[in-house]
Design goal:
With about 425 residues, the protein is α/β, with parallel strands linked by helices. It has 14 helices and 13 strands.
Length: about 425
């Protein structure tokens, strides 16, 4: 009996630690026997922890509950203390032994209940990328990546670009980002503003445009949509503010999160290579490992009634309303996910869904997939295991957007 009790206590501690790690790293989804299971923000492992503790208590039903209350309280305090010490020790080791993350000085907590985090204004630093070299990363005084914006010139067309890390230009130099490339193609008669921030979704982009972007008097608004923009974030409260503070300031969190992302990207790399070498395996391959299962989930995330997709649509409609009230042209550009850029591209339903929505709302739409089609996906990755677009990927998109703006006639001669 005592051995079984000890085993249950061990599993309780194990699942509590697992819940802590997965909660801090943002969670994941995986597939078992074709069934997708979500493990996000403390849910599944923590419930398993509670189940183990409950079984332990039920197993000891012979003793009165009052007699066990002190021992249970002591065990709970001991577990909490154990996790606290483990976290403090891990944080100390991460800060002392690991190289500093340059992105930790770039992001800050934003007090707005929906924006939640943003770039730190007036930052000029460099970011070490996958091959060991460093690229410059400048944030102007308004909190947007790139040079100072200055006063709007009378004959100048001001274009503001909304988006996440794809647009911000993760691990590419300031002059190699999509907005910088677009500025080059449009010439001196236009001023392109990079309002992208890594990790933002459509709701955050809407509120940033409303609170800051419109004050810059843009002549056109471009929103660069990525499939994970349907990730729903609850309104900022005290708990979420604490979690975002830990997210931005904890070296241990950054270490765990980086390792988790690298693991996912490594699997995505294997998926991309497998699908390019064996295109006929596309649907079956999507169910073989966690990252492939998440690809299938992304298609499901765009079904009607899904909370993330509904909030994303509402945000897009709100941006459209803001622009229409001010007679500002609004264009939505969809980035493909850089895997299997051929006829067997696994996210065609997502592209069709967004295209159909834009048609219904009468919003001009540009799908970038045809411009990337035929390329080897990994050739466009910014790193060996990072599928954000590299310099070539940024340039392909910028050329396509410049052509679209010319076709729409939005640029002043």
């Amino acid at each position: 009996m005592k051995s079984l009790q000890k085993l249950l206590i061990f599993f309780a501690l194990f699942f509590a630690l697992l819940a802590f790690i997965i909660g801090m790293t943002g969670g994941t989804r995986f597939s078992v026997a074709g069934i997708s299971i979500s493990m996000t923000s403390w849910n599944s492992p923590l419930w398993l922890c509670f189940v183990c503790l409950g079984i332990k208590l039920l197993y000891q039903y012979r003793e009165p509950l009052k007699a066990r209350r002190k021992k249970f309280l002591f065990a709970s305090i001991l577990i909490s203390f154990f996790l606290l010490i483990l976290g403090i020790l891990g944080e100390f080791l991460a800060r002392y032994y690991l190289p500093p993350d340059p992105y930790s000085t770039i992001f800050q907590i934003n007090p707005h209940p929906w924006i939640q985090f943003s770039l730190v204004p007036s930052v000029k630093t460099s970011v070490r990328i996958d091959n060991g070299t460093k690229v410059p990363f400048q944030v102007n005084s308004l909190g947007y990546r790139g040079p100072e914006i200055g006063e709007k010139k009378l004959a100048q067309q001001r274009v503001i670009c909304l988006g996440d890390s794809f647009l911000m230009g993760k691990d590419v130099a300031d002059q190699e980002t999509l907005p910088a490339k677009l500025q080059h193609f449009l010439g001196n008669n236009a001023q392109v503003i990079n309002a992208g921030c890594g990790g933002w979704n459509t709701v955050q982009e809407y509120y940033d445009l409303k609170e800051r972007g419109l004050a810059l008097q843009p002549d056109s608004v471009l929103l660069f949509y990525v499939m994970n923009d349907t990730h729903f974030r609850k309104k900022l409260n005290l708990w979420r503010r604490l979690k975002e503070t830990v997210t931005l300031n904890s070296a241990l969190y950054r270490f765990l999160r980086t390792r988790w992302i690298q693991w996912e990207e490594r699997l995505r790399s294997q998926v991309s290579v497998a699908l390019e070498t064996n295109p006929s395996s596309n649907e079956e391959a999507l169910l073989e490992n966690p990252t492939q299962a998440s690809m299938k989930d992304w298609n499901e995330d765009f079904q009607e009634g899904k909370k993330g997709w509904e909030s994303s649509k509402e945000a897009l409609q709100n941006i459209q309303s803001l622009c229409r009230e001010r007679n500002i042209p609004f264009l939505i550009i969809l980035y493909p996910w850089l895997v299997q850029l051929d006829e067997n591209y696994p996210f065609k339903p997502v592209h069709e869904k967004l295209s159909q929505f834009c048609h219904q709302q009468e919003i001009p739409f540009l799908d970038l997939f045809p411009y990337y089609k035929g390329y080897s996906a990994k050739e466009l990755w910014v790193g060996r295991t990072d599928s954000h677009p590299n310099v070539q990927g940024q340039e392909i998109a910028a050329k396509a957007v410049a052509q679209k703006l010319q076709q729409l006639g939005w640029l002043k001669k």
